Amino acid sequence: MLTMGIVNMYDKIKIVDAHYRAIARAAPICYAYGFSLALFDFPFKMDKDELVDFVMDKTTIGESGKYLDLLNKEHHLFVSDLPPKGFPAHFGSIVTTTSKPYPQKLLTPLDVAAGNMKKKSYMFLVGLGRKGLPKDLFERAEYHLDITTKGISLETCTAIGAIPTQINALTFALEQRQKKNDGDGY
């Protein structure tokens, strides 16, 4: 399972436009590329169905929340507080996304694609807000990913689009190469 985990670093008490707009932007990307969507520390005091309805009412992004609704109905939407210690095991390896990965924790997009082909699960954490991800997540995460491989910092929603797109493209390329090598491809 591949999961896009968005960690709210904005206000944790009141809802601001950035909250539901980021969710609405992430949902179609996640749905299109087969990712689950996990939301951490968002200030919504409602269950998932109410959250989906709220986002659908507030935005036209993602066909007015259609893809968020589909993720929820297909059990690929998770909403919780940020776990103080470990994440649930079903998320697999925790990966912080950063333009400055620790060399000893570096995971390349190609590494992810190869792991994806072997059905390895990853959750990619992206910070929503100017502060980025909390520093303790860099220590807690098993891996760090710079999706650009060039140390270029991306805005949150740009990263949310780039990560699934890059991983999907690389996985597809590896699958095609494997088919060709196995004699099943072109």
Tell me roughly what share of residues is in helical segments: 40-55%
Fraction of residues in β-strands = 15-25%
Kindly state the mean pLDDT as a whole number? 90
DSSP, total strands: 6
Structural class: alpha/beta
Give start-end ranges of low-pLDDT stretches: none
Strand order of the largest sheet: 3-2-1-5-4-6
Which outline best applies? globular
**Main sheet attributes: strand count, strand direction, barrel closure:** 6 strands, parallel
Rg, Å, rounded: 17 Å
N-to-C SSE string, H for helix and E for strand = EHEHHEEHEHEH
Beginning-to-end CA distance, first to last residue: 28 Å
Supply the number of helical segments.
6
Organism: Methanimicrococcus stummii
InterPro entries: DUF531
Pfam families: DUF531
Protein name: DUF531 domain-containing protein
Account of the protein in words:
This is DUF531 domain-containing protein. InterPro entries: DUF531. The protein is an alpha/beta fold. The chain is built from 6 helices and 6 strands; from the N terminus they run βαβααββαβαβα. It has helices at about 15-30, 50-60, 60-75, 110-115, 135-140, 155-180, and strands spanning about 1-10, 35-40, 75-80, 95, 120-130, 145. It has a 6-stranded parallel sheet with strand order 3-2-1-5-4-6. Strand 4, helix 4 (about 110-115) and strand 5 (about 120-130) form a beta-alpha-beta unit. It is globular. The model has no long low-confidence stretch (mean pLDDT about 90).
